[in-house]
Amino acid sequence: MKSHCPSRGMVLPCQFVIESPGPRGDPMFRIDRLRAAMAAPALALALAVSGPVHAAASKGPDTVADVAEKVMDAVVNISTSQNVAPSRSVPAPQLPPGSPFEDFFDEFFKRRQQQDDGDQEQSNRRPRRVSSLGSGFVIDPTGYIVTNNHVIADADEIYANFNDGTKLKAELVGRDTKTDLALLKVKPEKPLVSVKFGDSDKMRVGDWVMAIGNPFGLGGTLTVGVISARNRDINSGPYDNFLQTDAAINRGNSGGPLFNMEGDVIGVNTAIISPSGGSIGIGFAVPSSTAGPVIAQLQQFKEVRRGWIGVRIQNVSDEIAESLGIGKARGALVGGLNDDNSPAAKAGVKAGDVIVKFDGKDVKDVRDLPRIVADTPVGKEVDIVVLRKGKEETLKITVARAPEEEKTAADKSKPQSADADKPVVKKVLGLEVASITDDLRRRFKIKDTVKGVVITSVDRNSAAADKGLKAGQVIVEVGQEPVSAPADLQKRVDALKKDNKKSALLLISDGEGQVQFAAVPLN
């Protein structure tokens, strides 16, 4: 058995992976060994804590048997197989001619190569395969099944194993890597037992939930717990909004359903935090509010069509909020626009705007906006509320479809005229800055379209260094006013100090033109 994730003590996809090189590599053989190895310590642990566990259980639901009986047959075990190329032999080290070890290593690696050649010939007759076990659930009696993308990624064959022993080959309908969801389709002889998505937004911390899946390949297994937290960001993608639960989720539970007490799916079990690879009561599920629309689009279009407005955003810190004069830190700060033809550009959104509301929904922080925009229908015109120089403005914006690769369009502008040969250098805020010359553009690989003053060095003990500023970056704006020379930068900083501002809000660009804001203290 090998871990799907090589690291320990981190967020892990709850998938069970088995290598099957020969007869003793059969999945059931390994599972039987696992059962035997786990039985003794599991029994000892149960006896050691039987009192507290019983007391806690008595405060929970009397039974979940009726709900479990209704939904159990809709949960399936997903098994996949993948051909793995035979490993290559280790090359012999290159030793200097005449080395005392040369003859030794030549003989050793000659024998090793002969052995590898024999193993390779045998491997060609019996190719090695890797099998993975996960979970899924039926959402349509005609055979549509939901699971995690990482469960079926790179699989050559996918099978759905049902509670009654039926095994059906599954075809991939579509997948979404950003939410780690996939939709499969089987062809049953009769309608299947199915479940439906519930409303995860109604779930509160402390509500009871039930997980069913295929942990460690053991088959349909039910665990009960509560919602431990909502809206968790585990840095797995741009739309992280996980439900956290203490219902036991282990390897093999990936793709399985998390039910409420009415038997509706309010989450898709996806990952765990574990130092050992087993459950420690910290599991994560994609909420149905995210999974439902994604699966509906995969079923209809075989792909996901997300809304997009073409802005690059960043978090609003307390320092940035003070610099912008907006009071309490909130919303998503627009660091830049993807291109002049993006929906945001056409609507009049500008770098430095703070988006606080989109289509009537509050944008509390930078994580809210991508999810709200992505869930907005393509082509819909909505109101977007921004804070600009401390004042609230409402703009109209038409949501477009997100491009497959969210990259800035290639710059097609003509080169600008050359700057003066000798740069003007000035020291401000612990930075040494200069006007941009052709030599500095070549040195720092700055595109011709990037305008401002270039940072040539940073005092390592300065506040600017603490904010991550470094040589080669270009200061485009100070306090939302453009700067084109070091003197402009000094003038803006002096004006901010005169106004008793605590920090200077700098718009910083890299050589490619990607921008972000940084609030540098003035003291």
Automatic annotation (TrEMBL):
Instruction: Name a single GO biological process.
Output: proteolysis
Q: Protein name, please?
A: Probable periplasmic serine endoprotease DegP-like
Judging by the UniProt lineage, the source's domain of life is Bacteria
Could you tell me which species this protein originates from? Azorhizobium caulinodans (strain ATCC 43989 / DSM 5975 / JCM 20966 / LMG 6465 / NBRC 14845 / NCIMB 13405 / ORS 571)
Q: What InterPro entries does UniProt report for this protein, alphabetically?
A: PDZ (IPR001478), PDZ_sf (IPR036034), Pept_S1C_Do (IPR011782), Peptidase_S1_PA (IPR009003), Peptidase_S1C (IPR001940)
Q: Name one GO cellular component term.
A: periplasmic space
The listed locations are: Periplasm
Residues annotated as catalytic: 150 (charge relay system), 180 (charge relay system), 254 (charge relay system)
Say if the entry is tagged with keyword Repeat: yes
Q: Where does substrate bind?
A: 150, 180, 252-254
> What family does this chain come from, according to its entry?
Belongs to the peptidase S1C family.
Pfam families registered for this protein in UniProt: PDZ, PDZ_2, Trypsin_2
Organism ancestry:
Bacteria, Pseudomonadati, Pseudomonadota, Alphaproteobacteria, Hyphomicrobiales
